[in-house]
TrEMBL record:
GO molecular function: dioxygenase activity
Pfam families xref list: Glyoxalase (PF00903)
Entry protein name: Glyoxalase/Bleomycin resistance protein/Dioxygenase superfamily protein
Ranges for domain VOC: 4-112
Gene3D superfamilies in alphabetical order: 2,3-Dihydroxybiphenyl 1,2-Dioxygenase, domain 1 (3.10.180.10)
Keywords from the named record: Dioxygenase, Oxidoreductase
Length: 113
């Protein structure tokens, strides 16, 4: 069902300011989407994604994103297992949806070409 962890995502309050900050630390932007940017970190195989949104110390905004080659089948399988999932979304670059564990921790699945 899952092939790998695709990225780790952090929510930031200002994407442009945060992007500059990460780049000044040596992170390299490899992709920019609407409201988010993906960075490589040294030789790591797992990139870091920053996503603009509401930042709150009350919520854990860090979540893993898993990659799948068949997002529709993965979506159906999780629903069949009774896993809470959001609607499947397409932002023009990625197809993705969130799902939640028993403690309501957010996880995400994506597909991109």
């Amino acid at each position: 069902m899952f092939e790998r962890i695709d990225t780790v995502c952090l929510t930031v309050s200002n994407i442009e300011q945060s992007s500059v900050w990460y780049q000044e630390l040596g992170f390299k932007v490899v992709f920019k989407g609407e409201g988010y940017q993906v960075f490589t970190i040294g030789d790591s195989g797992v990139p870091l994604t920053i996503e603009e949104g509401r930042v709150s110390s009350q919520e854990n905004s860090t979540y893993p994103i898993f990659f799948t080659n068949d997002i529709n089948n993965t979506y159906v399988k999780l629903k069949e297992k009774g896993v809470e999932v959001t609607d499947l979304k397409d932002d023009g670059d990625n197809k993705f949806f969130d799902f939640y564990d028993l403690d309501k921790n957010r996880l995400q699945v994506c597909f991109w070409e």
